[in-house]
Design goal:
six-stranded parallel beta sheet, two-stranded antiparallel sheet
C-alpha cells in the first residue's frame, strides 16, 4: 500500500469517527437528567377550582418537568373517579383515620438512576392522600435528595414533609414547597422561582 492510499484510508477513518460521533447522545451528567417527579393529582371536582380535567398537582409536576427536564411517575388510582367533592373528602378522612393504603395502578418505578426525587400531591386531611403512602412502601429513597411539594387551599405543607421524613428516614428530605391550587394555572413563575432557589 503506497503512502497516498494510507493517507486516504486514514482520512476516511477520521471522517467516519467524527460523523458517527454526531449521532451519539453523550450522557448528561448534570442533576437535571437524574431527577424524577413522583406525584398524585386529582382531576374532577375540586375545592375552589371546580370540575377540572387536569389536576392541580399535575400542572405543577408538568412545570417541573418542563423547567428542569425531570422524568415523571404519576400515582394513578381510579378509586376517586367521578366523585363529588364532598363525598371525596369524607372518604379521604376515613382513609386517613384508618390508615388505609388504597392500591395504585401498575408497578412502582425503578429509582436506581435518580439522585433527586420530587414528591407532590394535594393535601387531604393534613397530609398527602393515602394512596401515596401505598407507593411509599414500595420504593427505596435511601441516600437520595427528596423534595416534597403540595397543592392546597389553605393547608400549606401541613404534615407532608414530616410524613415523608418518617417514610424515608435515610433520605435527605429538604424544605418543602406549597402553592394554592387556584394559583397553579397562572403562577408558573412561583414554581420557577422555587426551582431556581434549589439550584436548578
Amino acid at each position: 500500500m503506497n503512502i497516498k492510499s494510507i493517507l486516504l484510508a486514514a482520512c476516511v477513518c477520521f471522517l467516519t469517527t467524527v460523523c458517527s460521533g454526531q449521532n451519539v447522545k453523550q450522557p448528561n451528567n448534570n442533576v437535571m437528567s437524574k431527577a424524577i417527579v413522583i406525584f398524585f393529582s386529582h382531576a374532577g371536582d375540586n375545592y375552589s377550582v371546580g370540575n377540572i380535567e387536569v389536576g392541580n398537582t399535575k400542572i405543577v409536576a408538568d412545570y417541573i418537568t418542563e423547567i428542569i427536564g425531570a422524568d415523571q411517575f404519576e400515582i394513578v388510582t381510579h378509586k376517586y373517579d367521578g366523585m363529588a367533592y364532598n363525598l371525596l373528602i369524607k372518604l379521604a378522612k376515613e382513609e386517613a383515620k384508618n390508615g388505609e393504603l388504597p392500591p395504585y395502578e401498575g408497578t412502582a418505578p425503578d429509582l436506581s438512576k435518580y439522585d433527586t426525587v420530587f414528591i407532590g400531591g394535594p393535601v387531604w386531611w393534613g397530609t398527602y392522600p393515602q394512596v401515596m403512602f401505598t407507593l411509599f412502601k414500595d420504593i427505596n429513597l435511601d441516600g437520595k435528595t427528596v423534595i416534597p411539594f403540595t397543592t392546597h387551599e389553605g393547608s400549606g405543607l401541613a404534615s407532608c414533609v414530616s410524613d415523608v421524613k418518617k417514610s424515608f428516614p435515610k433520605a435527605n428530605v429538604t424544605k418543602g414547597f406549597s402553592i394554592y391550587g387556584h394559583e397553579v394555572r397562572s403562577e408558573k413563575g412561583k414554581v420557577e422561582k422555587w426551582l431556581k432557589g434549589l439550584g436548578f
